[in-house]
Amino acid sequence: MKRMTIKTQTELSKVNTELTIIKAIERIVEAAIDSHLSDEFYNETDVYLQYLSERMNLTKNQALLFALFIEKSSCYSISVSDFAKMVDCMVVSMISIMSETDVLEKRGLIRRRRVPDGDVSYCVPVEVVAAVQSNKAYELKPIVSLTLESFYDNLYKIFENESFETVIDIENTLDNIIGNNQQLHICSTIKQLSLPRDKSYALFLVCVFIHYFINKNDDNIGVYDWEDYFEKKYYVRSIISEIRDKSHILVEKKIIELCNDDGVSDNGYYHLTDSIKEQLFPDLKIVRKDMFKSRLIPYSSFAEKHLYYNSNVQSQINQLAMLLQPEYFKQVQTRLVENGMRKGFACLFYGAPGTGKTETVNQLARMTGRDVMIIDVSEIKSCWVGESEKNIKAVFDRYRRCAENAKVTPILLFNEADAVLGIRREEATRSVDKMENSIQNIILQEMEQLDGIMIATTNLTQNLDKAFERRFIYKIEFERPSVDARTLIWQSMIPELDSATATELAQQFDFSGGQIENIARKRTVDLILRGTEPTVEQLADYCRTEILTSHTSVSRRVGF
To answer: Percentage of the chain surpassing pLDDT 70?
Structure first.
């Protein structure tokens, strides 16, 4: 194909009159294909490069690079090798031109994709393509005059956009937004923190924590929540080290702190301190960290454990495990919606203590790849005075956000839920009775609107409110194990037991799996201390002690 060359000033003026941005790009790309970016290519496209550079306020090399990016704008990921193939030249020949990407990035014409520890790739924002199609030069507008809601929306776009730039570029964007919106209390407060712009990435991390706390209702931030924003993992390791040894600026300034779970430090999770929350969100009622507990537990953290049930329970667990496999679960939900039914799944596991209710949830999560949000009712019920309705509502709000952002729907687990499943009190007059009824009404309403998976465990069902009973699609009673099941549990807990001894112990002692595990632990401790294997008679003594402990233990009161 013969390429057109502009020779006279008259021809040049005529071309400039007829040109548009998209036509100039078409001419440049058409000439660039298999051109090796030779001198002939530059001579033939000079008028178009000149036009595009003037319209876009770019140099000619930048204009060429921009044209190539627009040609590839429909691609999810664009790399330097893509351009080298297009123009038929070595990658090294493209390096000098690709050095202009920094200018295009700052202008907002392209974005660098996050590819941790991998090759750099780019994409073209849709708004840039739209401007080109409209024959307009795209200008990155300053983000000003934001409302509080639009500020949080911008944080969401920044941190949930997989095609955003490097951490440094994100910090530049955040600094720009915060600096141009000092009319917002949160922006002026962040500015007053005087966070340094260095390898601590303090501004970036603060905004990550704010984003998770406000937009995702998550107050337990793990390293995995932000590490993928970094292309170089040694930066992540350095930050983690500083945070853990309390030398990081955010820890020194008491902006973030270690999360605690029952007084035991968990080095994997941090959150904003209560004092900084009160500074950043003065109009938000802050629930103190020791008043409310819920955390998304990764399914991979559950170790595989073999559980033994009676045959009828085993068949129900097998059916539920199949249903919760992601591919089946989606199909079932779709069919339910098509038939005008609720697509949420609420399940009740009930039975005596130690029969494996909670562990069954853990194993179902592990097998189906579902994280678990555990709500331990017995731990949080004391904080329900005054803020009860807000707190229980927050459980479902946070779960909804987690479900929306998860590839596989997590499980919401109400552990030991006796306190919230009881019969509602008619004509309640005491404030505590009204509070209980309000909590139960909220849960009932949320179960009606549930899109995900909720499992509640309880030891008692005689006081189960009929309204709750109707809303649980699966109700599985965890019976005390039969002799056969107990024999298998004995052998799994103490593999050294022969079949006859395991059967004898199973027949003699009507224990739950939890009680057998307790005896197995005592045996292990005895073995460590004495260095000798306990005899069968000693195991029987452990069993008799367990019976005595069970009979003399004080029953805990159910309810408030």
So the answer is: 84
